[in-house]
Amino acid sequence: MGKAKTPIRAEETRRCTKTMRSFLVTYRGLLEEELRDADFSLAQLRLLYAVRQKSGVSAAELSRMCEVTPQTAQTLLTRAQREKWIRRAKSATNDRIVTTELTAKGEALLARGEAAAAHIEKRLWAGIKLSEIRQMNGYLERCLANSKD
Question: Per the structure, how many domains does the chain have?
Answer without folding.
Answer: 1
